């Protein structure tokens, strides 16, 4: 089979790569399609070279559609909705694969354009999306992104090589770009945690887009501390960081679900900065976008309402990881799905065995 992966944003790659590797192992041909208007080519090309992947570049949706109609792949994977399904369904089957499992309503609404199949992670998510789209085809497989770490194929970071101390406990801070807690952390916060390694993995958009300059300035200040490693734009995958980390801090990132699935404690930062169009009289826009599903995080781990609470919360949670253990398992079953390391295999087997009705 010939399979294309529509890589609208480079941060789709960690979800795609385990499936691509399984496809190649089974002798199938794979191509990635990447967009000039959404990605910095030099950065992305370095990532592709590291992963030994080739990419076809297009300028926009129109060029992508033309490419698919010309190449006629057996399957095309999308990480988001697609507006030209009718035309490409003449020759190709389509699969939708969300790049994250966070609380945003967009997780569900991207399925408004029905593809041949959408692969779903956990049982609760499967039940809910079937309520929205009862006539569409959804298959629960788990979360392919985690396969390498579950299968012990992820070596993690070389802490000594990046200047950290392998004898210390390691904090992972993984803020998303919106809403983000990043600008609510002090410039010198690594000093409060000098006895720990601190890994900081911001969202790719934080590092690549000019409108996040204030966040980028914070990252630069933090990187000057000897106990800190800030991910570069080329560090696209969160897996190496999760492999080394003992505890996770975040506010609204699907990383909270992913890290919990590894049976490690998480702390949810209830403090974050909203962009101006979500503040004051416009707060309803924030509520509309993030919706009531934000309560999904309510008991996944300890919540803190301001930065200063982290100073006691982090050592407390590290000393008592069992406190939210049962909750983490429940979240994993409902939102991440089976953690047997075979999500990618299930996806590939589905493609190979698919027969249209």
TrEMBL record:
Taxonomy, superkingdom: Bacteria
Pfam families: Glyphos_transf
Protein name: CDP-glycerol--poly(Glycerophosphate) glycerophosphotransferase
Source organism of the structure: Shewanella japonica
Native organism taxonomy: Bacteria, Pseudomonadati, Pseudomonadota, Gammaproteobacteria, Alteromonadales
């Amino acid at each position: 089979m010939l399979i294309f992966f529509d890589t609208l944003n480079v941060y789709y790659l960690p979800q795609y790569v385990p499936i691509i590797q399984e496809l190649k192992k089974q002798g199938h041909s794979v191509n990635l399609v990447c967009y000039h208007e959404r990605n910095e080519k030099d950065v992305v090309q370095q990532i592709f070279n590291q992963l030994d992947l080739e990419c076809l570049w297009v300028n926009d949706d129109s060029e992508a559609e033309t490419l698919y109609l010309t190449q006629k792949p057996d399957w095309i994977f999308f990480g988001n909705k697609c507006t030209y399904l009718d035309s490409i369904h003449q020759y190709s089957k389509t699969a939708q694969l969300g790049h994250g499992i966070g609380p945003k309503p967009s997780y569900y609404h991207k399925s408004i354009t029905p593809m041949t199949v959408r692969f779903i992670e956990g049982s609760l998510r499967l039940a809910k999306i079937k309520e929205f789209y009862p006539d569409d085809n959804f298959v629960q497989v788990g979360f392919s992104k985690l396969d390498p770490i579950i299968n012990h194929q992820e070596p993690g970071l070389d802490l000594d090589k990046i200047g950290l101390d392998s004898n210390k406990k390691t904090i992972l801070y993984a803020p998303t770009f919106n809403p983000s807690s990043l600008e609510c952390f002090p410039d010198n916060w690594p000093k409060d945690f000098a006895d720990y390694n601190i890994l900081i993995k911001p969202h790719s958009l934080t590092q690549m887009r000019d409108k996040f300059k204030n966040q980028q300035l914070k990252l630069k200040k933090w990187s000057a501390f000897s106990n800190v490693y800030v991910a570069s734009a080329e560090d696209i995958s969160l897996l190496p960081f999760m492999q080394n980390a003992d505890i996770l801090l975040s506010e609204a990132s699907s990383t909270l679900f992913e890290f919990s699935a590894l049976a490690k404690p998480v702390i949810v930062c209830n403090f974050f900065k909203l962009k101006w169009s979500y503040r004051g009289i416009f707060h309803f826009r924030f509520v509309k976008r993030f919706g009531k599903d934000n309560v999904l995080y309510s008991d996944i781990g300890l919540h803190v309402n301001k930065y200063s609470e982290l100073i006691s919360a982090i050592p407390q949670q590290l000393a008592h990881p069992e406190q939210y253990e049962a909750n983490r398992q429940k979240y994993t079953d409902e939102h991440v799905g089976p953690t047997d390391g075979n999500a990618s295999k299930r996806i590939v087997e589905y493609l190979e065995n698919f027969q249209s009705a």
